[in-house]
Amino acid sequence: MSTAAPLHQGLLSRRACLAATVAGAGSLLGWPMVAVAGGQLEEPLADSVRSVLSAAIANRAPPVPEFDDINKRLAHLRWLGAMSDRLKKRKPDFQTRIEFLQTVWYESKRAGLDTTMVMGLIQVESAFRKFAISRVGARGYMQIMPFWSRVIGDGDAGKLFNMQTNLRFGCVILRHYLDRERGDTFMALGRYNGSRGRAEYPNAVYAAAKNWVHPDA
Hints:
Elements: H1 47-58, H2 70-87, H3 94-110, H4 115-126, H5 147-152, H6 163-180, H7 185-193, H8 200-209
Helix pairs in contact: 2-3, 3-6, 4-8, 6-7, 7-8
């Protein structure tokens, strides 16, 4: 399974206002789902970390997956079809839905993340709403705080509503937290949400991720 080069490193955290306790992340058909966005607190970054993160964000390779054999390509297409069916109620337009899923797959693989977990995180953070804004100002699908644009981007926080930009920032940041927590997803998810050490948010993401499990993920 080949995509772009893997990433490493990331940044920040702080307790978020958990808008509600997510009750089991809901069923696939009904999703009685409340978005639970984080309120991250900016922290100092080492220059070397900032440089790596900035480079990862700046690489504007289009989200076009490449495969070294036909079986991997077919597996990806099976995943894409299954996820499209599951997401149809949230994103009725076929082209919009496919572009979103293709980008999630590309950016998660590029960052060395579990695509199923990233889908669960997006469900919990924004309920798949492109223009979601939390009460603390986090933006878009993966609820990125605007200061990230200044710290590792070009300073234009408005771009966080761009689909690929938002998903790239979110995946790069989550990869950094996983590296910082030595692969511990529970603690990394807590950092992402700003509630490190608390169980509500990681458990909500784990529950939501069950809606997106697929053998070809």
